[in-house]
Amino acid sequence: MTFILNVLWIVFGGGFVIWLEYVWGGLVLCLTIVGIPFGVQCFKIAGLGLLPFGKDIEADPDSAGAGLLGAILNLVWLLCAGIWIFISHIALAAALAVTIIGIPFALQHLKLAVLALAPFGKTVVRL
Fold first, then answer.
1. Dihedral of the CA atoms 107, 113, 116, 120 (nearest 10)?
2. Cα→Cα distances 63→22, 35, 67, 122, Å
3. CA distance 106 to 68
4. Which long-range contacts (CB under 8 A, 24 or more apart) does 90-97 make?
5. What is the value of pTM for the model shown?
6. CA-to-CA distance for 32 and 48, rounded, in angstroms?
7. Domain ranges within the chain, ordered by starting residue
8. Per-residue pLDDT tens over the stretch 41-56
9. 117: CB partners within 8 A, 6+ apart
10. CA distance linking residue 117 with residue 82, whole number of Å
C-alpha cells in the first residue's frame, strides 16, 4: 500500500515537483561554504518530499544539528526560508484536503510543513 501511495503522491500530490525544488535549493546552497548545512537539510526534506508514505520525523538528540547549534541554525532557517516553505505546504495541504481523495496527500504536506519549520536536529525514519 505504501508503494502505491508513494507512486500516486509523485504523480498527483506534487512529490516530483517538491523533490526537484528541494534538490535545486540544496545544490544552490551547497555552492557556498556557509550554505552547506542548509543544503544538507534541503536534501533531507527532498528525500521525504519524494516518498513520504511509510516515513516519519523524529527528534535526533545525537545529531550535529541538536542542542544550541541546532537551535541557532533552525532560527536562521526559519527566518530566511522556513516560514515561506511552511506556508506553501499548508496552502497545498488545505487545497488537497478539500477533496476526500486528497486527504492522505494533505497529511503528507502537513508532515513536510512541520519539518520545513525546523529541520535541524530531526531525522527521517521508516515506519
1. -60
2. 21, 18, 9, 8
3. 32
4. 92/14, 96/13
5. 0.88
6. 24
7. 2-126
8. 999 999 999 999 999 9
9. 74, 78, 82, 83, 86
10. 5
